[in-house]
């Protein structure tokens, strides 16, 4: 069977081809799946998609009409998939429930350290042989109060690193993580966490209840010098409200690996295009803001784990099995 894989990055392609070689034929496409590209899947029973696929009702209907019966998404999040329509169409859908949490947690800290110590500005200066320290003063992480919003596997890894820096730990989640409690974390309500934290990192999934969790009201509660990090999902932050907060001269640093309107932008080269997203364009003008291209997960360890899990999901579908990765099971006949 040939598996059609959408949204394949250049560094990911040889790993996919190597992993699938002993099991299935694989054809890798660098285009992302949406209603315009869905006809490419015609004749393929099984396809695999990336996190930036648009699996809305129109896309899913085109896939089903073309003979697709299984969608294996190579990510943990699945807010881009209309699961109800998939079930109606008889499409099996899977995701990758987990992969190396260290990849995202470590990158979140890379963002935090870079914005706190103005690393990007310093690097740009020294390339021009400007070695002044003006505007480069940061703060010690040691002694800060760090707020972790979401203390699952990734949040717990982020917390362990924070503990190593010697910080006071605050957490917010629907359930307390014993591992975080063991590191001295105090769980509290969201308002207190926002008001008390010097550095806040987001590690919750994007759900209706968490959409714009960090909105204008939440941003007002934060300290003027607070650092905000988001390596989870862009929709957790109301970006327009964030821009207004920054325009008011507040927040000591913002590190974003995700953006709520990133579809069609991230993973593409738009350097020669006219920027039409005024909110993102304005966001990029603030010197204390660092935006990266949804790369927190992108380590060889994590990508290998994602590919291996995707392959297992496909084999489970072919064997009519389900697992913890199954979002929509294979229809029973």
UniProtKB/TrEMBL annotation:
**One Pfam entry name:** 2-Hacid_dh_C
- Per its UniProt record, what InterPro entries does this chain match? D-isomer_2_OHA_DH_cat_dom, D-isomer_DH_CS1, D-isomer_DH_NAD-bd, D-LDH-like, NAD(P)-bd_dom_sf
Per the record's keyword annotation, is Oxidoreductase included, yes or no?
yes
Q: Does the keyword Ribosomal protein apply?
A: no
Domain D-isomer specific 2-hydroxyacid dehydrogenase catalytic, which positions?
Answer: 3-326
> What family, per the record?
Belongs to the D-isomer specific 2-hydroxyacid dehydrogenase family.
Task: Write down what this protein is called.
Answer: Hydroxyacid dehydrogenase
Record the organism.
Streptomyces tateyamensis
């Amino acid at each position: 069977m040939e598996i059609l894989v959408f949204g394949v990055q250049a560094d990911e392609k040889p790993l996919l081809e190597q992993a699938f070689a002993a099991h299935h034929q694989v054809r890798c496409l660098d285009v992302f799946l949406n209603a315009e590209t869905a006809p490419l899947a015609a004749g393929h029973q099984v396809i695999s998609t990336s996190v930036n696929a648009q699996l809305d009702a129109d896309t899913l209907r085109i896939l089903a009409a073309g003979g697709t019966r299984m969608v294996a998404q190579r990510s943990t999040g699945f807010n881009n998939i209309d699961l109800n329509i998939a079930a109606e169409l008889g499409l099996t859908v899977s995701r990758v429930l987990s992969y190396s949490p260290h990849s995202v947690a470590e990158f979140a800290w890379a963002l935090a350290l870079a914005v706190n110590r103005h690393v990007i500005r310093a690097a740009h200066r020294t390339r021009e042989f400007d070695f002044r320290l003006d505007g480069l003063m940061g703060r010690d992480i040691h002694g800060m109060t760090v707020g972790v919003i979401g203390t699952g596997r990734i949040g717990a890894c982020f917390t362990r690193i924070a503990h190593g820096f010697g910080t006071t730990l605050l957490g917010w989640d629907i359930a307390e993580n014993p591992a975080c409690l063991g590191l001295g974390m105090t769980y509290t309500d969201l308002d207190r966490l926002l008001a008390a934290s010097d550095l806040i990192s987001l590690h919750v999934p994007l759900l209706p209840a968490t959409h714009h969790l960090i909105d204008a009201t939440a941003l007002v509660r934060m300290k003027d010098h607070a650092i905000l990090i988001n390596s989870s999902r862009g929709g957790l932050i109301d970006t327009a409200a964030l821009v207004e907060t920054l325009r008011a001269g507040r927040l000591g640093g913002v590190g974003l690996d995700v953006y709520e309107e990133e579809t069609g932008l991230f993973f593409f080269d738009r350097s020669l295009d006219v920027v039409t997203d005024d909110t993102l364009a304005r966001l990029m003008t603030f010197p204390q803001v660092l935006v990266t291209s949804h790369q927190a997960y992108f380590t060889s360890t994590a990508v290998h784990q994602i590919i291996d899990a995707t392959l297992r999901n496909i084999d489970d579908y072919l064997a009519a099995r389900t697992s913890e990765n199954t979002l929509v099971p294979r229809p029973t006949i």
